[in-house]
Design brief:
mainly alpha, Arc Repressor Mutant, subunit A, 8 helices
Amino acid sequence: MMTQETYVNINDLHKQEWTIAEIAEETGFHRTTINRRLKAGPPAARPTEATVMTDRWRTKIDVLLEAHLRLLSISVHNKLNAEGFDGSYPTVVRAVRDNRDPRFKPANSVSVPIHTAPGDEAQFDFCDLHGWAARFGWNIRSSRSG
């Protein structure tokens, strides 16, 4: 993508009477791209965050986060896009972080993970283990036999 800075450089070289082929070799752009850009003029300036994230969008973000405290930034971005927001995802992330911390707030109460030694506890799904029990010599009555 050609930036305004690159365009200015190309335009300066063109004014110094460099050929299109020389400018292409110098900048790494194709000759056709340089020719088109010189005819079209400079590329449009990209909008700044201040022009994209207006008070309207900030208010919508505040309302969304008030209604759904743990709403993710990607969901906020998708909802704003559906309403016509044309800003980037990082712009929305910065606005969401202004509204709340980058990470969600910790839980109200402290939780302690359960630590058990290997072999103290086991979890299994319901399945037929009669074949394994027979291998170990366990005599288990089958619920299938009546």
